[in-house]
Amino acid sequence: MSALALQAIKRTYQKLRPLVRETPTIEWDGPVKRDLFGHRRVYIKMEFLQHSGSFKIRGAFSVMLGHLDQVRQKGVIAVSRGNHACAVSFAAKELGAKAKVVIPKSASAKRIEKAKSLGARIFLTSDVDEAFALGKKIQKEEGCLFVHPYEGELTALGTASLGLEFLDQAPPIGEGDVYVACGGGGLLAGVSAYLKQKAPGCRIIGVEPEGAPTLSESLREGKTLSLKKMETIADSLAAPDALPFSFGLCREFVDEMMTVSDLQIVKAMEAIFEDLTLVLEPAGVTALAGAMKTCSEKRPLGIILCGSNIELGEYHKLQKAFPSKKRA
After folding, report:
1. 184-206, pLDDT tens digit by residue?
2. 146 Cβ neighbours under 8 A, 6+ residues apart
3. 310 falls in which pLDDT band (50, 70, 90)?
4. 241 beta partners
5. 187 near 220, Cβ under 8 Å?
6. How confident is the model over 260-289, as a mean pLDDT?
7. Could you give the strand order of the β-sheet that contains 25-27, starting from the edge strand earlier in sequence?
8. SS3 at position 285
9. Which candidate in 22, 190, 193, 296 could, as Cys together with 4 as Cys, close a disulfide (CB 3.0–4.6 Å)?
10. Please, is 155 exposed, middle or buried when counting C-beta atoms within 10 Å of its C-beta (0-12, 13-18, 19+)?
11. C-beta of residue 216 within 8 angstroms of C-beta of residue 290
């Protein structure tokens, strides 16, 4: 039996329903979609409409609900480049708990301010390693709950709820190809665990930035690895480590891993803006970038757009960094 049973996923989903949004799924159509995918049916899970702007809220609530007494008595601590910080801050506020978040200084200013506006106390560090060290120190000293950004059974049960919703909203993806962005693997682990058990005929493709292929390299080597040097515009996918629980689920349920370049991510940002007028962060469209790079079959296609936390100034900066003449 899988480490993440279907019944456990369904129970978690019922617990989360009053707290998270059931984000919509649309069947995408438009000139750009037809240029990219022809007549292939393409279903987009619009998870960027979730509370706090990303899928991270599902895992955050799942973890906190599993330790609710501790959360309300001692509070929570999280380490994040931004999206997880916003999610933990939002969830803690909803549950009546105090949140502290450690964020590297290089993170998006918008995400830092968003977490602060939700009531979290923010600690800035020089890099990710220092952030995790400080987070663990605060946890040990104060007895608060450490809410990991992508590792653990409760986190995966939370992200699996997204897979459950997606399949219910778009049954054809059960016989199609589903593209999921991957950083540490928390989203990919949960979504793949539900979909592959419920609909074995689907194919799950995890998509990482070329500059942060932590899970791809780990699966290739057959063990969890740490990557010290990462460089990608999809900074929220730049997880330094692959960790055992998420790694195990991905090894069991993911059919294929692939990487995409920063240029391909920007092309995906442009495609979704041109057809649907959506301004999404690089990580939010990384799954779409993977589908644009590889898919040519006629099977239904499922794509999760997972995050929207980007400043307009940063969006325009990325467009200028990859002008149209470079994209041809």
Report:
1. 999 999 999 999 999 999 999 99
2. 76, 77, 78, 135, 136, 139
3. confident
4. 226
5. no
6. 95
7. 25-27, 42-46, 301-305, 177-181, 203-209, 256-260
8. helix
9. 193
10. buried
11. no
Q: How far is it, in rounded angstroms, from Cα 266 to Cα 183?
A: 17
Q: Which two tokens stand for residue 123?
A: 């600690």
Map tokens 């041109």 to a residue.
274
- The pLDDT of residue 148 is above 90: yes
The predicted pLDDT at position 49 comes to 97
DSSP per-residue string spanning 93-136 = HHHT--EEEEEETTS-HHHHHHHHHTTPEEEEESSHHHHHHHHH
205, containing H or E segment: strand 203-209
List the structure tokens of 155. Answer: 């986190």
- Provide the 10 A C-beta neighbour count for residue 170: 22
Res 328: pLDDT: 42
Contact 84, 102 (CB under 8 A): no
DSSP string, 52-91: GGBTHHHHHHHHHHHTHHHHHHH-EEEE-SSHHHHHHHHH
Structure tokens at 198: 């419920």
| Burial of 263 from C-beta contacts in 10 A (0-12 / 13-18 / 19+) | middle
SS3 state of residue 304: strand
| CB 189, CB 159: distance < 8 Å | yes
∠ Cα 47 121 233 (to 5°)? 45
| Lookup result for tokens 């900066």 | 317
| Helix, strand or coil, per DSSP, at residue 262 | helix
Q: Is 47 within 8 Å of 154 (Cβ atoms)?
A: no
Where does residue 193 rank: exposed (0-12), middle (13-18), buried (19+ CB within 10 A)? buried
Ramachandran assignment for 169, one of left (phi > 0), alpha (psi -120 to 50 degrees), beta (any other): alpha
User: Model-level pTM greater than 0.85?
Assistant: yes
- pLDDT beyond 60 at 327: no
